[in-house]
Known about the structure:
- This protein is an alpha/beta fold.
- Among the domains are: about 5-260 and about 495-510, Amidase signature (AS) enzymes (Alpha-Beta Complex); about 305-335 and about 360-405, no CATH class.
- The chain has helices at about 10-15, 20-40, 50-65, 105-115, 155-165, 180-185, 220-230, 275-290, 305-320, 365-380, 380-395, 400-420, 445-450, 455-460, 490-505, and strands at about 45, 75-80, 115-120, 170-175, 190, 210-215, 260-265, 295, 425-430, 465-475, 480-485.
- The protein has an eleven-stranded mixed beta sheet, with helices on both faces.
- A hairpin with a 5-residue loop joins strand 10 and strand 11.
- It starts with 7 loop residues before the first helix and ends in a 12-residue tail after the last helix.
- Bound molecules: glutamine.
- Glutamine (GLN) binds near residues 128 and 154.
Amino acid sequence: MQPLELSAVDLVAAIRQGDITAVQVAEKFLDRIDKLNGPINAFLNVDRDRALARAADIDARRKAGKPIGPLAGLPVAVKDALCTADQPTTCASKMLAGFRPPYDAEVVSRLRQADAVIVGKTNMDEFAMGGSNENSAFGPVKNPWDFTRAPGGSSGGSAACVAADMATIAIGSDTGGSIRQPAGLCGITGLKPTYGRVSRRGLVAFASSLDQIGPMTRSAADSALVMETIAGHDRGDATSLADAVPRYTSMLEQPLTGLRIGRVAEHFGAGLDPEVARGVEEAFAAFKAAGATIHDVKLPHAKYGIATYYLVAPCEASSNLARYDGAHYGHRAEPGKGHRAEPGKGHRAETTRGQRAEPTSEFESPLVEMYCRSRAEGFGPEVKRRIMLGTYALSSGYYDAYYAKALRVRRLIRQDYIDAFQSVDLIGGPVSPTPAFPLGEKTNDPLAMYLVDMYTVGTNLAGIGGISFPCGFTRGGLPIGFQLQGPALSEPLLLRAVDRYQQLTDWHLRRPKLPA
Length: 516
Ligand code: GLN
């Protein structure tokens, strides 16, 4: 038996039946990580000893006839944006280097309770800001299909480790596409659940009205399995939904006959790579052959998605990231290394008698100096750009023109989806305008990088569900992704539609050629 290639569903069954032990499984994956993580850089931390101890405990319980959880022995990789009490949590930032959270994220606790084996923490764009993983303070992740290309981001490490068989499933987070886009570029299945479906407690906040955690797996059936563990109400997250969690795995079988899938003509306009367009059209044809009907729908405000997202997200980020100042949280600059101001420049503190004191540095006080230098040293350039954008757009005089206006447009974007879902059940289209792009191609052009998110941000702005999965390959051998979006709490339908597609096709079973 080759556990590296089994689906999560099959692997869990094999362990439960005793065909293979959890320790054997963990060893296989940890060896694979040892071999491949050097070149791919998908993991920021691997916890070999704990993973093996955990697996041994599961085996012992199984042998003793004691109950084991629904994910018993399944190797799971967790994005480094989720707090883990027993492993560092850095968000791929120097700001949080070496940080050990005092508690587990809710999703991590649920995974542990289900007896999953957490093998390590995955690389990402710093604070989840980016679409290529090149914003990690710890080096970019390589796309397993072509090491010269980006895996996408921000959950690039999670996507790459599943694509390269270094974990069976991974957990990602998606604020504007960070589960779906890397899943698309790495040829795996990624689900962004409805806002609030999965608890965000213990997820390092980026943009709180958009952030959502979800599974990154090889198939929709595997995502359904993971969702049964991680979805559900959490009193510790005020935005988590109280709705009962469906049995996703038992809702996959029903045929697609009569399913109405919307197609947005504008999604096939300028900027879409022709090979991606071809793959996506073929997937529409496959859905049709499976009994679905395809209908034209309009999302008239989708064209404002990028502008809206890149105001709302940085505004929320600038507020969320204010806590990293070297005192409350995060890296603290060493005292005494301050830059001395030239005489006459910098802030002069007022003395008590109203006279001006001679400046000692460009900062008004040692405390402010510590804050400023800690943030200057701890954050990378993209995070700083977002903080500045957000702070500017929230500042008095600009708030109405930018932030308040963006919120109004967000509402229109959301209403577009509500209207479209009157006449169709799901909306299909590309995940990303191009296949995986070369590392370095967009690093000096933030706008080009932002435009990569044109098809994914709407889902987050509307708070609905979206899933991405492979629907073909380019002539150069790169995966092409398809995205389905559905109304709030439509996860059972999204998973079923993709599972049916995956029963009829084998794109999701293809693997990159990597050393055995
Ligand atoms: N690429 C988007 C951004 O840079 C989305 C990131 C995300 O979903 N975390 O903000």
